């Protein structure tokens, strides 16, 4: 009798798991990864090695991998319309201040540049031990009409100057992802 009860339980579990698989799941975020050529005798003390983006219906998550991440430098992420001209979009600058606080600034562009501003839904983690910077924000941080398809990219700079010693890593690659 115990064997029949076990068999019925097993059969019920299989049926329920089959039903769970048959029910369509909610729309998931479209995600993508880029890997960048690293090293190559660059003068820069920064070395971007990869970018992962998850573009959901409501939220965007960008994870930047930086080989030997230190406590200095500025990292720029961009989210622009999917066209060769990239006429409008959003640029986010992430930097770590001298006091150790990580800050981000959002700027929109289209007919010129907007003033730099905070986006209350953004969350930034600067994880030196794991060599990554994680940025998450709501799609609503971009105030214009949201297109279905975006291009995402990144670059970094240690110093802002016109001198040749200004260290920059700009892989000039981008991901094209559809929202959620």
Topology:
Blueprint: H1 2-22, E1 30-35, E2 48-55, E3 59-66, E4 74-81, E5 89-96, E6 102-110, E7 112-113, E8 123-127, E9 132-138, E10 149-157, E11 168-169, E12 175-178
Antiparallel strand pairs: 1-2, 2-3, 3-9, 4-5, 4-10, 5-6, 6-7, 8-9, 10-11, 10-12
Keywords: Signal
Signal peptide: 1-22
CATH architecture identity: Sandwich
From N to C, what is the helix and strand string? HEEEEEEEEEEEE
Count of helical segments? Answer: 1
Radius of gyration from the CA trace? 22 Å
Secondary-structure-based class equals mainly beta
Count of domain modules: 1
| Strand elements, count | 12
CATH topology: Immunoglobulin-like
**Averaged pLDDT, please?**
75
Biggest sheet architecture: 7 strands, antiparallel
What general outline do the C-alpha atoms trace?
globular
* Relative helix content: 10-25%
Can you tell me the CATH class?
Mainly Beta
Instruction: Report strand %.
Output: 35-45%
Cα end-to-end separation: 50 Å
Return residue spans where pLDDT drops below 50 for at least 5 consecutive residues.
Answer: 3-27
């Amino acid at each position: 009798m115990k064997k029949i009860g076990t068999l019925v339980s097993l059969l019920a579990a299989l049926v329920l798991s089959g039903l769970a698989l048959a029910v369509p799941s909610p729309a998931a975020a479209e995600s993508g990864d880029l890997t960048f050529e690293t090293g190559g005798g660059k003068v820069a003390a920064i070395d971007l090695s990869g970018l992962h983006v998850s573009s959901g219906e409501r939220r965007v998550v960008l994870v930047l991998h930086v080989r030997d991440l230190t406590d200095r430098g500025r990292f720029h992420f961009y989210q622009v319309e999917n066209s060769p001209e990239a006429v409008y979009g959003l640029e986010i600058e992430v930097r770590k201040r001298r006091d150790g606080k990580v800050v981000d600034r959002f700027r929109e562009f289209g007919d010129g540049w907007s003033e730099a501003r905070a986006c209350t839904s953004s969350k930034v983690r600067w994880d030196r031990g794991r060599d990554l910077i994680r940025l998450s924000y709501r799609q609503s941080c971009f105030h214009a009409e949201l297109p279905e398809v975006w291009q995402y990219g990144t670059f970094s700079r240690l110093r802002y100057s016109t001198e040749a010693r200004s260290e920059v890593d700009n892989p000039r690659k981008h991901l094209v992802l559809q929202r959620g």
